[in-house]
Design brief:
With 398 residues, this protein is an alpha+beta fold. It is built from ten helices and twelve strands. Helix 2 (72-80) packs parallel to helix 5 (206-237). It is rod-shaped. The termini are far apart.
């Protein structure tokens, strides 16, 4: 036994243990450092991945915006080339539906009537052919846009605190949960409302609303131009007082209808009527009263003969004419009698005094009474004179 050797052996062992402990400690320490570095690196990778995802989404969104707004160039060209109101409305709803085809289900364009102060459907585009639009004057959302003259985004109709979902009329006829709507306006003048909706909630966002508003602005300019163009055309063919067609336009249409009746071998009836003792209203109440009488008769005629195809004109002075395509003589006589009674029973107030007016009516039908346009007018006029000569407030026919 050598104590010195044993002492050196113990020292060597302790040194080896110390070295091993140090190496283990250093390894653990470095492992922790590497673990932290790995976590930091993973976080950076995740951030880069998120940035990449956001960048890809942003690129995709920008491409969609470029594609959307790029398509507006063709829309502008199309809108600027048309002055027909119905054509513009149909084009707007079709293009809006196409550009938002992934989101929209039903697109509606309402036109605002300046006289009745109500909205009325002008055009629709439905992706779902069975969808039924029962509200022809708009719902609470359209009325909101109309009154506020501001665009509207509804993410969920059942959760939007601004509106009472229970007040939506006929909500069971066509289900929609989300919508965007924009006013069609020019300055302070309201032209209508353009809207698109979807049966699912959360479909539309603020970017969709901005895009719809851009379309609405372009559409409003085209609609206004079409309305002004239509009014300009009507000024040339309509009487300013009664809003009935002028005699020149009536004569042109009568010629076309006679040709059509010959081709189709159908009947064509003509009514010519005259306000009885019209001069007495001017003499007793003044010329303003005479204008009131003319406008009243014009309104009754417009309302009574409102079916498509009928044509009413102010023939001259206190005379009016009504063209009734494909109407047999017997029916024309009945219509004339009903009209005579309707006018006679209508109360009119002149200088706060209630009075009634009457008309005399002559009826003729092509081809049974006449073979030409001129002869048809002559025969109707002769029957009118007969009605006036036999006491007025009558209907006469061959």
């Amino acid at each position: 036994y050598n104590p010195s050797f044993f002492k050196h052996l113990v020292c060597a062992f302790l040194i080896i243990v110390s070295v091993i402990y140090f190496l283990i400690f250093d390894f653990v320490k470095k492992k922790k450092v590497l673990k932290l570095e790995e976590q930091e690196l993973q976080e950076k990778i995740n951030l880069l991945a998120n940035d990449s995802t956001r960048s890809n989404a942003l690129v995709k969104s920008l491409n969609e915006k470029i594609q959307r707004y790029g398509s507006l160039k063709g829309m502008i060209e199309k809108l600027s080339s048309s002055f027909v109101l119905d054509d513009i409305a149909r084009f707007l709803v079709n293009e809006t539906s196409n550009l938002l085809h992934e989101k929209g289900n039903v697109c509606i364009l309402y036109l605002f009537d300046q006289e009745s102060k109500e909205l009325g459907i002008l055009a629709t585009k439905k992706e779902d052919s069975v969808a039924i639009i029962k509200s022809k004057v708009g719902d609470i959302f359209d009325q909101w846009v109309l009154v506020k003259m501001q665009p509207l985004l509804i993410e969920d109709t059942e959760k939007d605190f601004r509106f009472d979902f229970e007040k939506i009329p006929q909500k069971d006829a066509r289900v929609f949960r989300s919508l965007i709507a924009s006013p069609l306006s020019s300055g302070k003048s309201m032209l209508g409302v353009l809207r698109i909706d979807n049966p699912h909630p959360g479909v539309f966002n603020s970017e969709d609303l901005r895009f719809l508003s851009t379309i609405a602005d372009l559409g409003a300019m085209a609609l206004e131009n079409a309305i002004l163009y239509q009014r300009t055309k009507e000024l040339a063919i309509k009487d300013g007082l009664t809003n009935l067609y002028l005699r020149r336009y009536f004569s042109q249409q009568l010629n076309q209808e006679v040709i059509r009746s010959v081709r189709k071998k159908s009947e064509l009836s003509l009514l010519i009527l005259d306000i009885d003792k019209f001069k007495s209203y001017n003499d007793k109440y003044g010329h303003i009263a005479g204008d009131i009488v003319l406008k009243t008769v014009g309104n009754i005629l417009n309302s009574y003969f409102s079916e498509p195809g009928n044509l009413v004109c102010r023939y001259g002075g206190e005379e009016f004419a009504v063209l009734l395509p494909e109407v047999a003589k017997s029916k024309a006589i009945k219509l004339a009698e009903d009209l005579r009674r309707k006018i006679k029973d209508f109360d009119i107030f002149l200088r706060k005094k209630k009075t009634n007016i009457s008309v005399s009516i002559g009826v003729a039908t092509f081809p049974s009474d006449a073979r030409t346009k001129e002869e048809l007018i002559l025969k109707s006029d002769m029957q009118l004179l007969k009605a006036k000569d036999s006491g007025r407030n009558k209907v006469c026919y061959s």
